Amino acid sequence: YDSLLSFGPFELSDAVLEHLATGSIRLELQAFASSVSASYLLGRANLPLATLLECSQQASNPTFGGTLAFASSHDARLQIATVDYKARWRRPILESVQ
Q1: Residue 45 in contact with residue 74, Cβ under 8 Å?
Q2: Per-residue pLDDT of the chain (98 residues; tens, 9 = 90+)
Q3: What's the DSSP call for residue 18?
Q4: The whole model's pTM is what?
Q5: Which among 24, 59, 83, 90 could disulfide-bond with 46, CB atoms 3.0 to 4.6 Å apart, if both were Cys?
């Protein structure tokens, strides 16, 4: 499925930059049955945010991508799904990270 997640706008303060350098986004893969309102957690994946801070004069607003692996919620050693992702800033942030 194609999905788009959008965040912001927000100010890139020192606290936000520190969070991006050390934090991550946790994604959960859930299953839903049409006859039940509850969901069933299948697995989780973490996407580190530090990559979003990697920019240069040559690439002031690069696009980052990769494959994110979801681990089973019952056995973290078991990979149950993968998702290809791409991310980029709406505006260049080079001045903020220098």
Answers
A1: no
A2: 677 777 767 777 888 888 888 999 899 999 988 888 888 999 999 999 888 887 766 776 778 889 999 999 999 999 999 999 888 777 777 666 66
A3: H
A4: 0.73
A5: 24
